[in-house]
Amino acid sequence: MKTMKKKGQIFILSAPSGAGKTTLCQSVRKHYPDLLYSISHTTREPRAGEQEGVSYFFISKKNFEEKIARGKWAEWAEVHGNYYGTSARFIEKAVGAGEDILLDIDVQGTRELLKKYPDSITIFILPPSLAVLRKRLELRGTDSPKVIAARLRAAQEEMQHKDIYRYQIINDKLPEAQARLLEIISKHRKP
Fold first, then answer.
1. Dist CA 106 CA 116 (whole Å)
2. Which fold has domain 10-188?
3. E strand or H helix at 167, and its extent?
4. Which residues contact 188 (CB under 8 A, 6 or more apart)?
5. Where are the beta strands (DSSP E) in 29-91?
6. Mean pLDDT (whole number) for 173-191
7. Domain boundaries in the chain?
8. Residues with Cβ < 8 Å from 20, sequence gap 6 or more?
9. What does the DSSP 8-state code read for residue 20?
C-alpha cells in the first residue's frame, strides 16, 4: 500500500506595526528551528542592518512587475509605493516536500494566500490597546510623529479584519503571548 506524503502546513502571522510580531516570529523560529521561514521580496531600499536573503530579498520594481505578469507570487501587495511579495515557487516546493512554513505577512497578503491555501493556520497579533501601540512605536525612536500617526491609522484598519484569522493573540505580556503562539503552532504541526 502506497503511503501519501504529508503536505506541509502554512502558518501565517499578521499584526499591526509595533504589536510585537517580529519578536514573536523570532521566538517561534528559535523554538522550532526546522520550521521554514518565508523571506519576502521587496522593491524598497534596505534599511540599516537589513541583509539580503535574511531580512528580505531586495529586487527591482521592473523585476517584481515581470514576476507579477508571469504569476510568480503566491501573494503580493504595493505598500507606500513599494512592492512586497511571497514567492509562489518557494511555498509550493516547501509544502509539497512536507515542510511547515511560517509567513509574516499583512492582512491583504493573508487574504490572497487563503484563496490558494485555505487550510493555512492564521494568527493575528493584537496590541493591548491603541494607546499602548502608540507608546511602543514612539519608544522605537525610528519614526516621525507623522509616520507614527499613519501607522496607527493603518493598525486600526488592519484590526478591523482580525476576524478572518483563526486565532487572535493579544500581546500584552510577551511571555504569555509567546506561550500561546507556540501552543497554537504545536497543535497544528504535522507529525
1. 16
2. Rossmann fold (3.40.50)
3. strand 167-170
4. 9, 11, 121
5. 36-37, 41-42, 57-58, 73-79, 82-87
6. 93
7. 10-188
8. 125, 127, 136, 171, 174, 177
9. S
Tell me what the mean pLDDT of segment 122-128 comes to.
96
- Identify the pLDDT of residue 1: 53
User: Does the pLDDT of residue 141 top 60, yes or no?
Assistant: yes
CB 123 within 8 A of CB 167: yes
Query: Is there a contact between 114 and 49 (Cβ–Cβ < 8 Å)?
Result: no
Give the whole-angstrom CA distance, residue 23 versus residue 41: 20
Sheet strands side by side (includes 73-79): 57-58, 41-42, 82-87, 73-79
pTM exceeding the 0.70 threshold for the entire prediction: yes
3-state helix, strand, coil in the chain (%, to 5): 45, 20, 35
